Amino acid sequence: MADIPLVFEIGITAMAGALATIAGAAEDVESDIGSQGDPNSQVQLAPQMGYIHRIFNKAIAGEPPAWGLWITLGAGLAWAFMAMSMNPILAIILGCGITTFVQGVYSTTAYLGRTASLAKFGQPVYIDILKSMTTVTMAHAFVAIFATVSMCFLINTALGHPFPLPLLGLVWGIALGAAGSATGNPYYGKERQYQTQKFGAGVPIAASGNIVRYAEAGERNSLDNGFFTAKLAGPASGVCFGLIVFLEIWRTILFEPIGAGWGAIVVGVIMIIIFAAIDRYIEVWARKNYGPYTAPVAEASS
């Protein structure tokens, strides 16, 4: 890290964590509206099982590689514009804006291609869904890309990280997609798409593709999933990614000078053990208080 006051470094760390929290929340809402990541397999399978739906189905790739691409592209464009003596703020906005249009093109072709492949099962292409959902995913994508690229810029310039901006974008873009996929998708995939299943039951083989297709009024579309995600999964993903960024930079700033870098490594291992213990406790507590995971035999037979 650069030779700057510790208080300043902690302030930059807090700001980077705040930007990461915003990025994580926007990323997960974008992903769940677009049915990207884990839940998309059931959306893709539904027509093959006879369940026609109005859910946007764009999964360009798994979230980590897809977001690695978006953030790297946004950071790379911003880096190139700044190399041409453009104002950094304007460069980041312009780079992220161009990347958002690329994301929109990928989303459009992915939706049309995936839906066309399901034509034999009677799944139509809904033009209103394409036009309305694509713009919504692009809006959330811009927020996530801009916040993450800005975070990388802070780490690169204010904290003096040796990685160039595009490489930082690749690393944190993959981390952003992984945080949303691991933290936010279970809300949408298991709690929203499969509200008819018992808590924690997962997706039984007999229910494969039988997603909940009707909302409180009319057929469900991806905006309904977005409203749900913005309440629970988005904030959860934001807190997850924000903590990852904040604690990673925090432990590096404070403990890297100790033991030629081993201090930061030891603290990182201790943090992982603590979080693993907390996760295990919460999981056991949830099973005991909100189970059972599967229906009793007598209830199932009745």
Topology:
Layout: H1 6-33, H2 40-45, H3 63-83, H4 88-116, H5 127-158, H6 165-192, H7 222-231, H8 233-255, H9 262-290, H10 297-301
Whole-number radius of gyration?
21 Å
Structural class: mainly alpha
Anisotropy-based shape? flat
Order of helices and strands: HHHHHHHHHH
Distance between the termini: 65 Å
Labels describing this entry:
302 residues, mainly alpha, 10 helices, 70% helix, flat
Outline of the structure:
By secondary structure, the chain is mainly alpha-helical. It has helices at residues 6-33, 40-45, 63-83, 88-116, 127-158, 165-192, 222-231, 233-255, 262-290, 297-301. It has one domain (6-255).
Verbal overview:
70% of the residues lie in helices and 0% in strands. The protein is an all-alpha fold and 302 residues long. It has one domain. The longest helix has 32 residues, at 127-158. The radius of gyration is 21 Å and the shape is flat. The N and C termini lie far apart (65 Å).
